[in-house]
Amino acid sequence: EAQVTQNPRYLITVTGKKLTVTCSQNMNHEYMSWYRQDPGLGLRQIYYSMNVEVTDKGDVPEGYKVSRKEKRNFPLILESPSPNQTSLYFCASSLLGTGGDTQYFGPGTRLTVL
Amino acid sequence: DQQVKQNSPSLSVQEGRISILNCDYTNSMFDYFLWYKKYPAEGPTFLISISSIKDKNEDGRFTVFLNKSAKHLSLHIVPSQPGDSAVYFCAASDPSYDKVIFGPGTSLSVIP
């Protein structure tokens, strides 16, 4: 089954404790992206990757890191989480990465930073 | 400042009637528009899209209309069904930046 998986689905942590949210897709997509969803703000892009070893900042990259060492994986790293990073996070992938290309989203990771 | 706006946070419609969800954008360079649907505890899923060279695209019960001069698009669902109850995100593609800008979403409730 074609899908984007994220782990963990739920995470409660404390300020400053490094964490990683994993994302994997099995569709051989070139493009992968991370979004956060906050009430009234919709989905805002954090980082994206057009291909292996190619990453770029989205609209809200501060406090986040990513890496793309393999085509299928695109982990999101929070080196020192803060309470304002409490949010719902989605990973997405698409075949080509052009703007009009349909994105496939993972199920989301609900992160709470205390 | 939000480039893609959905000014109605929520909408309630009776089953069988038409649902109209609206979206406005500010950037005239946007050339492709998409609607995504999101159920609770799931990720968004693609619903329908429209290119800026068209003014209408239809897929079953779902039709998207684009008015470029007004920088406005709308999603029509006819007839509405309880299973359509979800959050709908409007999104616009900026070809200059390889990115898609999402609106804040509209929560649709279809009442049986």
What can be said about this structure in brief?
The complex is a heterodimer of chains A (114) and B (112). Chain A is an all-beta fold and 114 residues long. Chain A is 0% helix and 50% strand.
Description:
The complex is a heterodimer of chains A (114) and B (112). Chain A is mainly beta and 114 residues long. Helix content of chain A is 0%, strand content 50%. Chain A is built from no helices and eleven strands. Chain A has strands at 4-7, 10-13, 19-25, 31-38, 42-51, 54-57, 65-66, 76-78, 87-94, 104-105, 109-113. In chain A, strands 2, 4, 5, 6, 9, 10 and 11 form a seven-stranded mixed sheet that branches. A four-stranded antiparallel sheet of chain A has the order 1-3-8-7, with no helix packed on it. The radius of gyration of chain A is 13 Å and the shape is globular. Chain B contains no helices and eleven strands. Chains A and B meet through β5 and β10 of A and β4, β5, β9 and β10 of B.
What are its keywords?
heterodimer, A: 114 residues, 7-stranded mixed β-sheet, 4-stranded antiparallel β-sheet, globular, B: 112 residues, mainly beta, 11 strands, 0% helix
Which secondary structure elements does this structure contain, and how are they paired or packed?
The complex is a heterodimer of chains A (114) and B (112).
Chain A: E1 4-7, E2 10-13, E3 19-25, E4 31-38, E5 42-51, E6 54-57, E7 65-66, E8 76-78, E9 87-94, E10 104-105, E11 109-113
Parallel strand pairs in A: 2-11
Antiparallel strand pairs in A: 1-3, 3-8, 4-5, 4-9, 5-6, 7-8, 9-10, 9-11
Chain B: E1 4-5, E2 10-14, E3 19-25, E4 32-38, E5 45-51, E6 56-59, E7 62-67, E8 72-77, E9 86-94, E10 99-102, E11 106-111
Parallel strand pairs in B: 2-11
Antiparallel strand pairs in B: 1-3, 3-8, 4-5, 4-9, 6-7, 7-8, 9-10, 9-11
